[in-house]
């Protein structure tokens, strides 16, 4: 018998259920309201989780229509409260987990170097504020540039914090996205960072997290998005050769498996987050149309949790990270409308390079650069 | 010094009386607040207190271990623990044994592995680490952090003794699961990406050896994407034309012929698909199409036929990308 995938574009889409948008919004709002003790591991990345919640609401077009202004202003002030500065510049910390109370209800902001900004969190904070349409007058731009500078290492990568922490392609992407939103690249040595990116390339066509590591969907997105963000500002010549580009596309396409979802590495099971990382990588390379969108939608449908939220795989528990990335994937690669896909599957358009809604990306690019820049 | 499950709160321990606990600040309208347990609140209150005074003493190690066991992602606790270990000149082998336990327990936490890197960078004794990694891979044979740590360790210390058994190790990992892409990747790293080791000076010979190796694995399990990617990797790396594999690939790209198993002269250079293997094999058809496209001319039509058969029959999920290849190839012909 020939090896044939059972899923196909030719099959009718009649069975595609609604995208449970209300349930997914409720899941995100519940997480914003509070998390159980069992999720204490979110403590040192709380603001990133806030981004996945707000980003989901943004893609579902709920932020401006179904939340009130007072609520949004409360969220804005919480995010700004995480801006912190010190000898290594300024950025955003993940939350108040290392901030003691000075007096009742007053934070002790001059606390210590162990409460420093975090580069991944800082990227998500800027997007949160753009989602909430903040005017960014409170942003310490020169401090932010200084922060990026103190995070970059000799090998071109960035550490998560000025005083240490791991460094890999994720942090390179965050540094590039921040520079791109600031429209100011003076905080990063782009050439050295490009050297680091190139050293992470694998024979399979994807990029590993660090030099010599296995090709992985998330870090491949980070590599491709970083190069294209820089290109957008500097109009560099093509950074991938024709054969490299072809290999990368081949590997990305190969990652869409029979379930309709994408796996992050060759031979692994599909996972909702890789639908975004691999799908967006294809969009960045200009071949987003190669994604099998109806199979993708069926996979995401199977990851929907019955009480709201999207899980990494069918039968797993949902979380804001997978909910947001699955929605972002659908936004880039919606199922075709000439068949019977319910209109709930059509979401707000996404900017694949900054990984946020297009309107939000436009707002960020308009308001984050220094005035008069 | 390990914290017991029923250990009393730090607030109830006389030996912590001199520390002023600092409760966490929380905005009156917090976003995504976590409803901490009393034990976590207690330990982190004392941790903020310690950080405030800058104390680095043995009891800080107990406190940070307690927090890490409650929240292994608490990177401030990890960082402060590392600083304290350095300040105390604490025996790092003891710390590494504790990490042996924590790494396996929190296999997917970045901080566990980062801390380990810092420790080994300090001890400069990478040798025992290989054995630890091998053991920890038994828990999860594809764990990304574990493999990355091994690749870092080898590249960072880069001494001959460390490398001496690495190809064997990759072999063993592949033997236990021939579809483990992490093991294939590791083999590529060891053979092609990390310098030339004694015995491997003849690079053409190395390429021949690797081609023979991967062909045998493809023969055992033809529908193994990892092995085909490895094959392509060798060819790209050594700039070997794909067409040199034509003889090997062809039998994999067609349905099994009824008398295939009757052939009694086996070409050792080109092992045939194992009996019972599902044929034709998508990766082989794709490979053959690449050969034809590269030949150009009339062969382009052969390539488009193969892509068409993938799109319509053998690999329909990737229909759009095969049709893209067809359009792309035909366009080049017309130009």
Mean pLDDT of chain A: 92
Fill in the CATH topology of chain A.
Answer: Glycosyltransferase
Structural class of chain A: mainly alpha
N- to C-terminal separation of chain B? 75 Å
Number of domains of chain A: 1
CATH architecture of the domain at 199-335 in chain B: Alpha Horseshoe
Q: What can be said about the biggest beta sheet of chain A?
A: 2 strands, antiparallel
Order of helices and strands of chain A: HHHHEEEEHHEEHHHHHHHEEH
CATH topology of the domain at 199-335 in chain B: Serine Threonine Protein Phosphatase 5, Tetratricopeptide repeat
Which strand order do you get reading across the main beta sheet of chain A? 1-2
The ordered string of helix (H) and strand (E) elements of chain B is HHHHHHHHHHHHHHHH
Notes on the protein architecture:
The complex is a heterodimer of chains A (373) and B (335). Chain A has 373 residues and is mostly helical. Chain A contains 14 helices and eight strands. In chain A, strands 1-2 form a two-stranded antiparallel sheet. In chain A, a hairpin with a 2-residue loop joins strand 1 (83-86) and strand 2 (89-92). In chain A, helix 1 packs antiparallel against helix 2 (46-59). Chain A is globular and about 55 Å long. Chain B has 335 residues and is mainly α. Chain B has a domain at 199-335: Protein prenylyltransferase (Serine Threonine Protein Phosphatase 5, Tetratricopeptide repeat), CATH 1.25.40.120. Chain B has helices spanning 38-53, 58-70, 75-88, 92-105, 110-123, 127-139, 144-157, 160-163, 166-176, 181-192, 203-220, 225-237, 246-249, 282-295, 299-314, 319-334. The model of chain B has no long low-confidence stretch (mean pLDDT 93).
């Amino acid at each position: 018998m020939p090896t044939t995938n059972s899923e196909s574009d030719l099959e009718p889409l009649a069975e595609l259920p609604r995208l449970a948008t209300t349930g997914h919004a409720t899941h995100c709002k519940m997480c914003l309201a509070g998390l159980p003790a069992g999720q204490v591991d979110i403590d040192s990345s709380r603001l990133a989780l806030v981004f996945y919640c707000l980003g989901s609401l943004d893609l579902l077009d709920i932020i401006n229509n179904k939340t009130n202004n007072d609520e949004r202003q409360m969220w804005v002030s919480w995010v700004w409260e995480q801006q912190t500065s010190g000898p290594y510049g300024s950025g955003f910390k993940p939350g108040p987990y290392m901030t003691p109370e000075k007096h009742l209800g007053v934070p002790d902001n001059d606390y210590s170097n162990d409460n420093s900004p975090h580069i991944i969190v800082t990227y998500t904070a800027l997007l949160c504020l753009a989602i909430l349409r903040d005017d960014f007058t409170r942003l310490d731009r020169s401090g932010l540039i200084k922060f990026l500078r103190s995070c970059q290492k000799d090998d071109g990568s960035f550490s998560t914090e000025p005083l240490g922490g791991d460094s890999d392609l994720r942090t390179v992407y965050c540094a590039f996205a921040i520079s791109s939103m600031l429209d100011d690249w003076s905080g990063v040595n782009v050439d050295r960072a490009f050297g680091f990116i190139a050293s992470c390339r694998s024979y399979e066509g994807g990029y590993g997290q660090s030099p010599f590591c296995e090709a992985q969907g998330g870090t491949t997105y980070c590599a491709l998005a970083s190069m294209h963000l820089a290109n957008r500002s500097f109009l560099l010549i093509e950074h991938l050769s024709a054969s490299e580009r072809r290999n990368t596309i081949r590997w990305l396409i190969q990652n869409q498996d029979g379930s309709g979802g994408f796996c992050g590495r060759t031979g692994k099971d599909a996972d909702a987050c890789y639908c975004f990382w691999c799908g967006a990588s294809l969009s960045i390379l200009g071949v987003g149309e190669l994604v099998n969108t109806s199979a993708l939608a069926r996979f995401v449908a199977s990851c929907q949790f019955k009480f709201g939220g999207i899980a990494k795989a069918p039968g797993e528990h949902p979380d804001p990270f997978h909910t947001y990335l699955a929605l972002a994937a659908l936004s880039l690669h919606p199922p075709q409308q000439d068949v019977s896909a319910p209109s709930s599957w059509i979401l707000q358009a996404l900017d694949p390079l900054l990984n946020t809604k297009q309107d939000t990306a436009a707002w960020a690019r308009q308001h984050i650069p220094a005035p008069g820049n | 010094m390990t914290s017991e499950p029923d250990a009393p709160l730090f607030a109830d321990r006389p030996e912590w009386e001199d520390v002023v606990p600092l409760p966490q600040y929380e905005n009156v309208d917090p976003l995504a607040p976590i409803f901490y347990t009393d034990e976590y609140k207690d330990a982190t209150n004392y941790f903020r207190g310690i950080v405030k005074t800058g104390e680095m003493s043995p009891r800080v190690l107990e406190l940070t271990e307690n927090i890490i066991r409650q929240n292994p992602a608490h990177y401030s606790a990890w960082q402060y623990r590392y600083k304290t270990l350095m300040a105390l000149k604490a025996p790092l082998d003891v710390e590494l044994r504790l990490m042996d336990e924590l790494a396996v327990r929190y296999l997917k936490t970045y901080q566990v592995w980062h801390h380990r890197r810092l420790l080994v960078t300090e001890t400069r004794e990478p040798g025992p680490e290989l054995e630890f990694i091998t053991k920890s891979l038994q828990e999860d044979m594809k764990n990304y952090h574990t493999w990355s740590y091994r690749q870092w360790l080898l590249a960072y210390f880069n001494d001959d003794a460390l490398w001496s058994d690495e190809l064997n190790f990759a072999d063993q990992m592949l033997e236990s699961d021939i579809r483990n892409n992490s093991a294939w990747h590791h083999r590529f790293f060891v053979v092609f990406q990390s310098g030339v080791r004694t015995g491997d000076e003849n690079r053409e010979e190395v390429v021949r050896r690797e081609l023979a190796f991967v062909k045998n694995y493809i023969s055992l399990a033809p529908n193994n994407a990892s092995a085909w990617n490895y094959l392509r990797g060798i060819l790209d790396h050594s700039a070997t034309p794909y067409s040199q594999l034509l003889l090997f690939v062809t039998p994999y790209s067609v349905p099994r012929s009824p008398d295939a198993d009757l052939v009694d002269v086996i070409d050792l250079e080109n092992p045939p698909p194992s009996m019972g293997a599902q044929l034709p094999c998508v990766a082989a058809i794709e490979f053959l199409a690449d050969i034809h496209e590269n030949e150009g001319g009339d062969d382009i039509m052969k390539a488009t036929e193969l892509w068409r058969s993938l799109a319509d029959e053998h690999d329909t999920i990737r229909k759009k990308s095969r049709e893209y290849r067809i359009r792309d190839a035909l366009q080049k012909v017309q130009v």
